[in-house]
Amino acid sequence: MGAPGEGVVDVHSPVAEKVVELATARKDILRIATAGSVDDGKSTLIGRLLYDSKAVFEDQYEAVARASKGDFVDLALLTDGLRAEREQGITIDVAYRYFSTPRRTFILADTPGHVQYTRNMVTGASTADLAIVLVDARKGLLEQSRRHAFLASLLRVPHLVVAVNKMDLVDWSEEVFERISDEFGAFAAKLNVPDLTVVPISALHGDNVVSHSPNTPWYEGPTLLHHLEHVHVASDRNLTDARFPVQYVIRPQSDAFHDYRGYAGTVGSGVLRTGDEVQVLPSGLTTTIAGIDGPRGPVDEAFAPMSVTVRLADDLDVSRGDLICRPDNAPQVTQDLDALVCWMADEPLRPRQRLAVKHTTRSVRAVVKDVTYRLDVNTLHREPEAGELGLNDIGRVRLRTTQPLFVDDYLRNRVTGRFILVDEATNATVGAGMLTPAG
Amino acid sequence: MTSPDYRLTQLETLEAESIHVIREVAAELERPVLLFSGGKDSIVMLELARKAFAPARIPFPVMHVDTGLNFPEVLEFRDKRVAELGVELVVASVPDAIAAGTVKEEPNGSRNRIQTPVLLDAVEEHGFTALFGGARRDEDKARAKERLFSFRDEFGQWDPKNQRPELWDLYNGRIHLGESIRVFPLSNWTELDIWQYIARERIAIPPLYLAQEREVVERQGMLYAVNQFIRPRDGEPVFRETVRYRTVGDANLTAAVRSQAVTVEEVIAEIAVTRMTERGATRGDDKVSDAAMEDRKKEGYF
Predict the structure, then answer these.
(1) Which of A9, A119, A183, B62 minimizes the number of CB atoms within 10 Å of its CB?
(2) CB burial of residue A365 (10 Å; 0-12, 13-18, 19+)
């Protein structure tokens, strides 16, 4: 249909009209991160989701069918993008996939499972609403599975799904599934996982991915796709604490907008309304919101993650890196950061090291005061004697910044509770930090 | 835009993310430039840039890498849009570079590859430190791996195995002299999103994107409209077909598809029911190998 050599699509046929209605329906976005060990079948699962939700186009499918070596079409080939990945049969970097169903549209960050690429898992999970951890039913929970679940919980991904894959290779055994489920449940209890779902699947054959499988009559839960379509994410956001980091000052200085002065930014959390009394940090001065301009003109209110421009009633000195909040609900203003840091550089993180910090729209420098402990991500045991963090280590770190930051605990606010660390010599992003309460 | 349940739709979410990225670049990088070809993706990107700074002007210039093989309708559109917005237009000319001997014409007639050195020279000449591109991750397997902020070394090269981790929306735009960042604000948009946004925001597009009866020739199963760059070969049948373009690349290589879609809404309907990716369907130059895009990107291509 629509291909040059073929007939033209009749967009007015009843079937086409239905397709169009579904494709263009008002939907929201669910951001997903997937993780699994090598050979867990993650790429196959993603290929399956893309193929069964019709996100794969004919020419892509034909290319994959041609490249497949076995008896069946290797859907994993749909997702391996780089030459080295195809050659080595591995996934090197985060790849983003897009598919949609009549209910939702999905952005899926496909993250590699090997230990050395943990930083990519953190990249993928940082923006996710939901994480899928793949487990091979024959192998059960591996160190990798625990690590992935831990990273997802560390980054406060609100929903976690464990897909127990290759159920066909354990004869669809309910007992095997229950054992893995229980084992994972026990581990998850030690983490802060608000919502956990475990699904028995075969990515290769499609069981319980889109439709219920006749092979698992004992399983009464949702299929994977059904869960992705219906998982409730509205309450995941913080609509309580108004936080508006100023990103850019808009001053047209034109005849038509001679006196216009607007503070552009993305609402981090909470709701801002015209007429609200607000406080600007670090000055601490208060004023009211005179107006809010959205992409299509003035709006009465703005909430996360809207990108808007806020106009204030008084002429205050406000610049990039400042933060607008409510006077009775301000973040903590501090130069001392206590955070869990995921370290992503070859050179270890050590006390007295100097780094650049980017927090909301504010960039400062910091010195490492202390590496309080390193976490063993398998046992969640704290190792205070470590003294440093190596590549892919996670640990608690104390930093002192050159200028104050306006922070909340990551647990309460994913926007004002996070920061990145940058090496000022190489300019590389070397760490991800999540603020924790001091003490 | 406001809804009682404080939820954004997919288009509003994507729009907010893109505007955030564009503002972040303008705030953090010294000399950005927006790559504007007059194609639908760069049109949407330019519109998002306008919204990001309204009512002020877009605070950076736009650049067109002119292969000299443009559809005239697209050039006309480019100039009109740039004038409306009052932004500076920088043209990096491939024909000029060929004339100066800095690049050589390739035997297959494609100027896709030789655009890269022309682009890189212009970047160096103007001292641009950030380049906005309208690429989307759903276009290609190599693009699917690209960050929103994609670091390039002093040769403009992409190192896919050594990309900066990109966490949350905290983008790292730090560079040394001579290095640059390619920024892709439309990374998370799909083709359908782009068209729906064009419809919703009533964004003007060149007429080539809508179906019209044209004289065409058929080559390797693809339909090419006869124009100043595509002349019928000896004995090649020329026939009339109602066609539109899904992408507008070079006029000598971009094929059209049969279509009856004369409105943006009808284009959306066609796309929703069509099962061919746009590049596969119409770009002769991407079919070379499975890794064609990866190779070109490593050399500094978009």
Answers:
(1) A183
(2) middle
Q: Averaged in consecutive runs of 10 residues, what is the pLDDT profile of chain A (439 residues)?
A: 47 68 79 80 83 63 62 60 57 78 88 69 90 93 85 92 95 96 90 90 92 94 94 87 98 88 97 97 97 96 96 95 97 97 94 97 97 89 94 94 97 95 95 85
**Alpha carbon distance B93, B99 (integer Å):** 10
B-contacting residues in A 45-74 (Cβ below 8 Å): 54, 57-60, 63, 67
pTM to 2 decimal places = 0.91
Whether the Cβ atoms of residue A90 and residue A114 lie closer than 8 Å to each other: yes
**Would an 8 Å CB–CB cutoff place A96 in contact with chain B?**
yes
Between chains, do A6 and B258 touch, taking CB under 8 Å as contact?
yes
Q: Which residues in chain B touch residue A8, judged by CB atoms under 8 angstroms apart? A: 242, 258-260
Q: Are A207 and A168 in contact (CB under 8 A)?
A: yes
Give the A window 115-134 contacts with B, CB below 8 Å: 119-120, 122-123, 126-127
Question: Radius of gyration over alpha carbons of chain A, in Å?
Answer: 24
Taking a C-beta distance cutoff of 8 angstroms, is the pair B11, B196 a contact?
yes
Tell me what the mean pLDDT of segment B232-251 comes to: 91
